[in-house]
Design brief:
single chain; alpha+beta; three-stranded antiparallel β-sheet
């Protein structure tokens, strides 16, 4: 005996097809977003390294950027002021409020290389509820307390804090 047209089975197959199509579309959108879209926040200076030419280009704006994977590598530098301190035995001896100056980006990158330079309070710089220093803040601290008095174009000392003002 031949069965007739079963609309319930048709709707079930259509539902499975649409669910599968939706999952595939979401995976494609996610992979595209991860590979082709880069975000530079308002407190960051972004720059692009072109792997074909070796040229570094400073980004003029913040926000979302569509990139070419493998050819372009986007990196950022934190522009927010950060406090760097000289400590001894859990006692603060001296602190300075320093800020990265984007005008000296090329010199900084030639000395320290290309990568993301994040300040304290971002990414993985919190451990156990206590803010810890980052490689970037340690780099800026070494230039802020360098004893020769040389002025670096990538570093601005916003304020020198006395022992009473620090933390």
């Amino acid at each position: 005996m031949k069965e007739g047209f079963n609309s319930r089975r048709l709707w079930l197959k259509l539902g499975y097809f649409l669910a599968g199509l939706t999952i595939i579309a979401l995976v494609i959108i996610g992979v595209t977003w991860i590979w082709f879209v880069q975000f530079v926040d308002t407190y960051q200076q972004g720059y692009v390294f072109n792997t074909r030419t070796g040229k570094i280009t400073t980004l003029e704006r913040t926000g979302y950027f569509v990139r070419t994977p493998i050819v372009e590598q986007y990196h950022t530098v934190d522009l927010r002021p950060m406090q760097v301190c000289i400590n001894a035995n859990q006692r603060v001896l001296n602190c300075k409020l320093v800020q990265f100056n984007a005008k000296g980006l090329d010199l900084f990158l030639s000395w320290h290389g290309r990568r993301d330079y994040e300040g304290p309070g971002t990414g993985g710089s919190r451990k156990g509820g206590k803010e810890r220093t980052t490689d970037f803040s340690e780099i800026l601290k070494s230039y802020a307390y360098e004893g020769t008095g040389k002025i670096y174009p990538f570093l601005s000392v916003v304020r020198e804090l006395k022992n009473e003002d620090a933390k």
